[in-house]
Design a protein that fits this description.
The complex is a heterodimer of chains A (315) and B (231). By secondary structure, chain A is mostly helical. In chain A, 74% of the residues lie in helices and 3% in strands. Chain A contains 14 helices and 2 strands, in the order H-H-H-H-E-E-H-H-H-H-H-H-H-H-H-H. The longest helix of chain A is centred in the first third of the chain and has 31 residues. Chain B is of the alpha/beta class and 231 residues long. Chain B has 2 domains: 154 residues, Rossmann fold (3-Layer(aba) Sandwich), CATH 3.40.50; 63 residues, no CATH class. Chain B is 36% helix and 27% strand. Chain B has a 6-stranded mixed beta sheet, sandwiched between helices. Chain B has a 4-stranded antiparallel beta sheet with strand order 2-1-4-5. The two termini of chain B are 33 Å apart. Classes of the chains: A mainly alpha (315), B alpha/beta (231). The interface between A and B is medium-sized, with 19 and 24 residues.
Chain lengths: 315, 231
Amino acid sequence: MEVFLFSMFNGVLYGMLLFMLASGLTLIFSLMGVLNFAHASFFMLGAYFAYQISKYVGFWPALVFAPLLVGVVGAAVERYGLRPVHRFGHVAELLFTFGLAFVMEEVIQMIWGKVPVPYDVPAALNFAAFTWRGLDYSAYRLFMLVVSVGIFVALFLFIAKTRVGLMIQAALSHPQMVQSLGHDVPTIFMWTFGFGCALAGIAGVIGGNVLGTEPAMAITLGPIVFVVIVIGGLGSLWGALIAALFIGIMDNMAISYDIALFPIFAMFGVEREAEGIMRDLVDLTTGGIAPVLPYLLLVLMLIFRPRGLFGTRDV
Amino acid sequence: MLEVRDLHAYYGKSHILQGVDLDVKPGEIVSLLGRNGVGRSTTIKAIMGEVEPQGSIRFKDQEIAGMKSHAIARLGLGYVPENRDIFPTLTVRQNLLLGQKGTRNAARWSMEDMFKLFPNLRERADTPGGVLSGGEQQMLTMCRTLMGDPDLVMVDEPTEGLAPQLVEKVAELLNEIAGRGLSILLVEQKLTIALKISARVYVMGHGEIVFEGTPDDLKNNESVRQEWLEV
């Protein structure tokens, strides 16, 4: 029971972290038609900024200023990078963000080096929030959960209730009309891009010290975020939420329970004493295949339901 | 109020507008008539900055050719597109709110005015715009543009696909708008309401203005009607 509860907690937490990246990515995609391959790089940038800021003034200012800085960098990338590229079409934009991801990784390595930086959990939150049947649950993880749920609620209220949120919703279907009513749509695009990057930045700030802040963190997480938005349905915030939670929980459950997959292979006639290629199948467990599960899901989704759970258009 | 001189526009390589001249004076209803595909919609899209214009477009004595469409809208030019472009997930009320250019409210029209003109919209104020009927959507589109307090409204085929009573209602609304001192540039294919409410009419053919005059002039000019309007 405690294993179930703890992996559930961790699964939700990982899922919310994924959602913070996926929500920005899917918002940018549905508004501007840009699949931002560099999105996870902004997550990484958030972690490094937080490391640098917290070195001088501590974690709490970093929690506020690192995402803001990432947002400004994101807005600048849209204004001076993507916008000029836009008139050459979506393929050019895609290639631009693809290149940008590598450039950002290289720049980060030049500044902070190739090895992980010592960005640690703040001392004030580095204790066990509760202990249950001998298992500790860290206060920092609880804090991450509170921040990510808070961001999620704020995001939905922002989109549904504010005037800018309404403009974003309107521009999803008729950007030209929004502009003809006197609203500066290019500027809305720029700040939505920056806002999406800032959301990824927050995930970097609160996740970087748990997952490790190093130059490969973008490459590690980036593809899974794409899986989330494809499964959820491109452009759907609710889809992104549900898919992120699902993948987060699935990942943690697969590792915690580590169930042997032999019975499944046995149905296909594989014997326990199999030799050669089959030998590897006998020992396979869910924990062993956990890293590939999201991609398996991605492939199945693309075959059977290309528009994802809540998407309105095919990928 | 609006002076268009030698307006050209292209879609790719095809030369759609080939030197259009037209004027709209303050408080005047002017109609731009012609068959499908002669460039009527392109003319107002070019004025609005949605299609790149070449030539001169002056609005309130300011050159607007080359400006971005949101800046043109903020000068007081309103546009009601043919395809209506209702924001489908937003409610009627939210659609109207987005018509306002700012949150300061000193406009000629309030939401209450809109609801008085069209009680249907009041009843459906909290309904998503996407589920309204065609007629209701047309009313909503016009009201949404009016909420931005324009001095000149360009309306593209407002009666298309509407039932006869609704066509009358549109004519009433356009008269009511003009009565408040606004200018209107109405684009129509059919002559029905255009001849009734316009002070002047232009007829377009193949990217140019081929006739300019009063509605009576047009009524008396059999050859123009036959060559450029009647199907």
